[in-house]
Write a structure and sequence with these properties.
The protein is of the alpha/beta class. The protein has a domain at 49-353: Alpha-Beta Barrel (TIM Barrel), CATH 3.20.20.140. It is built from 14 helices and 15 strands. It has helices spanning 70-81, 86-102, 122-131, 160-174, 197-207, 223-233, 237-243, 261-270, 278-283, 291-296, 316-331, 339-353, 387-393, 420-434; strands at residues 11-16, 19-25, 43-47, 49-51, 105-112, 134-141, 183-189, 214-219, 251-255, 273-276, 300-303, 370-374, 401-404, 407-411, 414-415. The protein has an 8-stranded parallel β-sheet. A 5-stranded antiparallel β-sheet has the order 3-12-13-14-15, covered by helices on one side. Helix 3 links the parallel strand 5 and strand 6 (134-141). Helix 11 (316-331) crosses helix 12 and helix 12 crosses helix 13. The protein is globular, with a radius of gyration of 21 Å. 51% of the residues are buried. Bound molecules: zinc ion (ZN). Zinc ion is lined by residues 53, 55, 218, 254, 306-307.
């Protein structure tokens, strides 16, 4: 996934501290390492994947309303989510991050837009630091309750001054814009049907004072979403976002299923990104995003698993496979997406969407984020002709090794930074207490 898209046989990587120093063949590498991981010529080593859209807390509420579309599904969930506490945010974030790391993701964003009771986004920032994952924390919000014509109940929305005050606090306490940074911050009023335009435009103004802070929201997810925007604002998604300062290279939008060619052209010109979430779009019957047209127009496209209440998993390898298959169904053509394009969207595509030039592909000077998959595993029998395409064409769901910022976080398929079974047990207890 470097600029030449090289695939190096008998390849090797030299890492010093948290940075990649040399990439080449094993013979070319200087013999200076103090620690050697010998992958015996049977692994594919590739850049760590980048997840551009998630709601970690939804781990606690999987498969609620399994057969609903977006609006009824959301309405069934708000009354449960409003009872969450700080511990729920911490545990669910850590469990979602564990699933992501095991499935090859080394950097994730998370959009936390509901902060009831004592919940704070600091809870998930702490969880991701504890497990050792690179993170973009999106401080989300909702400001239009039911009584004002919005979708969420009044008791889960916040006032705009409160949103802006906490957004500023989060940026100043946590945002690190340095190269190889492990934590960056974005602001994310939730969606056109849950926030006022003031929350959108004021957030856009706030980030101007902070280098590297980005904006993120949900956009054009399904036909109802488009109809709501047309009726309330008389606008298409690109015009509407442009009017609020949300059409720029500091912005990425989740879904973008129903962008038309004009929207796509405006997004591409502005450098605005999309987080493509194929599993969620299929699960909620939202549609199939025009990824071929976006890529052809030069638009930034990354991959996202979306929240665990609409996927209902956090598996990046499987998401890349679904992206590939869905694009071919949509276009009724293998040109809808190639196997290597699916991997590209999941890696450097996501890095571009999150505005990072230090991750997404392993080349000297980049952060040491990479993964390795053993191609001699049972599910790859017969797939030796093209082990790279096998990663997305065969049904595989986990990596054997994962390094984040030079640290081995997955070793022989097991997490090194957390007791996964104990974490799952604790999170299950929290989920049962919440949904009962
Ligand atoms: Zn979402």
């Amino acid at each position: 996934m470097d600029d030449e898209r090289r695939e190096i046989h008998n390849g090797a990587i030299l890492v010093q501290n948290n940075v990649i120093k040399v990439v080449g063949t094993t013979e070319e590498l200087p013999k200076v390492g103090s620690e050697v991981l010998d992958l015996q010529g049977r692994y594919v080593v590739m850049p760590g994947m980048v997840n551009t859209h998630h709601h970690f807390y939804q781990v606690l509420t999987r498969v609620i309303t399994p057969d609903g579309t977006l609006f009824p599904w959301l309405k069934s969930l708000y009354p449960i989510w409003k009872n969450m506490r700080s511990t729920d945010i911490y545990l669910s974030a850590k469990l979602a991050a564990a699933e992501l790391l095991l499935s090859g993701c080394t950097t994730s964003s998370d959009h936390l837009y509901i902060l009831p009771n004592d919940c704070r986004i600091d809870d998930e920032i702490r969880a991701l630091a504890d497990i050792g994952m690179r993170f973009t924390a999106v401080r989300g919000s909702m400001s239009i309750g039911e009584s004002d014509g919005g979708l969420p109940p009044d008791n889960v929305v916040e006032t705009i001054p409160a949103i802006l005050k906490d957004s500023q606090r989060i940026i100043e306490e946590h945002h690190d814009n340095s190269r190889h940074s492990m934590i960056r911050v974005a602001l994310g009023p939730c969606s056109p049907f849950t926030v006022t335009v003031d929350a959108m435009s004021e957030s856009a103004k706030l980030i101007e004072d902070y280098e590297g802070v980005r904006l993120h929201t949900h956009l054009a997810e399904n036909a109802d979403d488009i109809a709501y925007m047309k009726e309330k604002y008389g606008a298409r998604p690109a015009e509407w976002t442009e009017s609020l300062g949300w059409l720029s290279d500091k912005v990425w939008h989740a879904h973008c299923v129903h962008l038309d060619d004009t929207d796509i052209g405006m997004f591409a010109k502005a450098g605005t990104g999309a987080a493509h979430c194929p599993a969620s779009n299929m699960r909620l019957a939202s549609g199939a995003a025009p990824i071929r047209a976006m890529r052809d127009a030069g638009m930034r496209v990354g991959l996202g698993v979306d929240g665990s209440a609409s996927n209902d998993t956090s598996n990046m390898l499987q998401e890349a496979r679904l992206a590939l298959l869905l694009a071919r169904v949509r276009e009724v053509s293998v040109d809808g997406m190639t196997a290597r394009e699916a991997i590209e969207i999941a890696t450097r595509g996501g890095a571009e969407v999150l505005g990072r030039d230090d991750i997404g592909y392993p080349t000297p000077g980049m952060s040491a984020d990479f993964i390795a998959v053993d191609t001699h595993r049972n599910e790859f029998v017969g797939a030796h002709a093209d082990p790279v395409a096998a990663l997305v064409l065969c049904q595989t769901d986990h990596v054997d090794y994962s390094f984040v910022n030079g640290r081995k976080v997955v070793d022989q398929g097991r997490l090194t930074t957390v007791d996964y079974d104990l974490l799952a047990k604790q999170t299950r207890a929290a989920a049962i207490a919440l949904v009962s």
